[in-house]
Amino acid sequence: MTLLLLGEFENPEVWISALQTYQPQLKIEVYPDVENLAEIDAILAWMHPLGVIEKFPNLNVIISTGAGVDHILRDPNLPLDIPIVRLVDESLTSQMSEYILLAVLQYHRQLIAYKTQQSQGVWQGLAPRNTSDCTVGILGLGVLGLDIAQKLKMMGFSVRGWSRTPKVLDNINCFLGEGEFKLFLSECEILVCLLPLTPKTEGILNQNTFSALPQGAYLINVARGKHLVEEDLLNALKSGQLSGACLDVFQIEPLPKNHPFWVHPNITITPHIAAKTIPASVAPQIIEAINKSQGGLLLNNTVDVSRGY
Fold it and tell me: Which of 31, 145, 170, 286 is placed for a possible disulfide with 141 were both Cys, Cβ 3.0 to 4.6 Å?
């Protein structure tokens, strides 16, 4: 068996060490140093060069290094007969929920306003609010969305969720499809985007969406940069329709030095770090996917290419 690391891997040796800890005999190559294209059985991919995957004639499985697969599906020459597996990892889920909780509480406890007061030398307490009076809306109720929805509810927030497939969750109001989208948005003081990136969700964070939110709402985007129409966000902040935003993902990454987001007083920026894959944590399920694909067994967490997730 030979696994190929294909794409942008900052520290491929860390991945190799983690994987071979669980399966020492696994041969691992790092693109473009491939001895024999026909020997590649599995690919572990992140932002791979387009048109490369189709060159491996005996490929059994493509594995994403994270929960999202849009970076794989963007390839127009992707062989559609090869199963794609995404990673579902407790560490990724925990990291994502920690980040969102931090962003929600930063807004709810008015830390941004206090930071401004600090820079001005102002000592003034602001009126507190109960969590039950703050409604958080979660766009996307997959593994990540479900986890943060439940944690926010446990903290006392009013929580609602929106998805394209029906969901029934205890004590969380669930909304379905385009017909209930504006109804979902109508009470979201904080809107969190956790949607997969598909042709139907690209640009969903736009003027129409922002205008359906209560005035002064706050946006948290931890999904993909292409969900957001950046100019519409700047306009919504300028008009006061939105009070601020916390952004971890962007149309272009790294964010260009001259981008207006850098200096906007009401935008918090982080460099796509909300949830980073830890190789040692996900290695067992990668090995399992490779072994199952070799034996023709049913794979876990496979992607429906037609839906994009």
Answer: 145
* pLDDT, mean over the chain: 97
User: What number is the average pLDDT over the span 189-206?
Assistant: 97
Q: Which tens digits make up the pLDDT trace of 205-257?
A: 999 999 999 999 999 999 999 999 999 999 999 999 999 999 999 999 999 99
Q: Using an 8 Å Cβ cutoff, are 194 and 140 in contact? A: yes
Over range 285-309, report the average pLDDT: 96
Instruction: Report, as residue numbers or ranges, the catalytic residues.
Output: 224, 272
CA angle 117, 122, 123 (to 5 degrees): 110
How many CB atoms sit inside 10 A of residue 128's CB? 8
Percentage above 70 pLDDT, the chain: 100
